[in-house]
Design goal:
- This protein is α/β, with parallel strands linked by helices.
- It has 11 helices and 15 strands.
- Strands 3-2-1-4-5-7-12 form a 7-stranded parallel sheet, sandwiched between helices. Strands 6-15 form a two-stranded parallel sheet.
- Helix 1 (about 10-20) crosses helix 7.
């Protein structure tokens, strides 16, 4: 299959391109490189451009008329930044996705796998959420993902488009072959910060919030290995038509997680075990947009896609640390 990946030069997008290649498919990358890494585009057909640019999409389709599906990963993703820059997030994530979906319809590409987020769920007393759990996004970033889902669902109902929204929980780790990993110089996610503290790039790890209603007071997350996440996208394009048959609709949503909740303190202890020593840490207040968290019921992913997570939390930590040793060689910066 030929698969167009928007945002294919990013952390998750680049891992998906490797997973597709390893599975015998041809990924085609579209990325503006505003946040993506050029180094991740050197192996696959690459188009430098904006997802809302019809001319770029038209060029891609003319040169690859046999594209089977689109995986839409391109988005701004930093929650605190979305709080301070909502205009940027609604423009980049919502407005441009609307144009992308409309232009794909015009160009005759109808299968869309959308990178959504578990951050759209409402708080749950048990922290476990299914795809049918109430939705209540609590940050501008999360609301953009919610709106993108609604737009795609409405367009699937009114046009020839068909969509699968994959609701990510918390990706960690790196490609097991270390072809890609976290590429931003100052990662905002929890494991990236732990790695930076261990590497001496940050003086300490901040535990942001210790009064959540969890078993130890710190936030709870479902940490899914990025390679497992990437393989779920391979399954999504391979099983796309089957999945929508089970959805009994032109659109459906699927959780991608391990089905297990891990608190920040539990992650911290696991990191110190893999790293081999303690790191300096300090408790502090939650960041703007932070929530207690949730973890996935992933039964639908197994039923619709034939997918379940396989890699451990410790392996995610190990590959993140190994990637940190290699990233300067791949990217040209530490």
């Amino acid at each position: 299959m030929k698969v167009l990946i928007t945002g294919g030069a990013g952390y998750i997008g680049s891992t998906i391109t490797s997973a597709l290649t390893d599975s015998g498919h041809l990924p085609i990358v579209l990325d503006s490189l505003v946040t993506g890494a050029l180094a991740f585009t050197r192996v696959h057909p690459f188009y430098h451009g904006d997802i809302a640019d019809f001319a770029v999409l038209q060029k891609i389709v003319l040169e690859h008329p046999d594209i089977d599906a689109v995986i839409h990963c391109a988005a701004r993703i930093v929650v605190p930044e979305s709080v301070s820059e909502p205009y940027v997030y609604y423009t980049e994530n919502v407005s441009k996705s609307l144009e992308l979906f409309w232009n794909l319809e015009r160009l005759g590409i109808h299968r869309i796998v959308f990178s959504s987020s578990a951050s759209i769920y409402d708080a749950s007393d048990s922290f476990l959420v299914t795809e049918d759990s109430p939705l209540k996004p609590s940050s501008p970033y999360a609301r953009t993902k919610y709106m993108m889902e609604m737009i795609l669902e409405d367009m699937c109902a009114a046009t020839r488009l068909r969509g699968l929204a994959l609701r990510y929980f918390n990706p960690i780790g790196a490609d097991p072959l270390l072809r890609s990993g976290v590429h931003v110089k100052a990662p905002s996610h929890v494991l990236g910060k732990l790695v930076d503290v261990a590497a001496g790039k940050l003086p300490e790890f901040l535990i942001t919030g210790t009064n959540w209603a969890t078993r130890d007071g710190t936030g709870i997350r479902d940490f899914i290995h990025v390679w497992d996440l990437a393989m779920a996208h391979v399954k999504a394009v391979e099983q796309f038509d089957v999945a929508l048959t089970k959805a009994t609709s032109s659109y459906g949503a699927v959780n991608l997680g391990t089905g297990e909740g891990v608190t920040v303190c539990e992650l911290l202890r696991a990191f110190e075990r893999v790293w081999g020593s303690e790191i300096k840490k300090r408790e502090t207040a939650p960041r703007p947009g932070d929530v207690a968290g949730a973890y996935a019921n992933a039964d639908r992913a197994l039923d619709w896609l034939g997918w379940k997570s396989e890699r451990s939390l410790e392996n995610g930590i190990f590959t993140a640390l190994e990637w940190a040793k290699r990233r300067q060689l791949v990217l040209g910066y530490p």
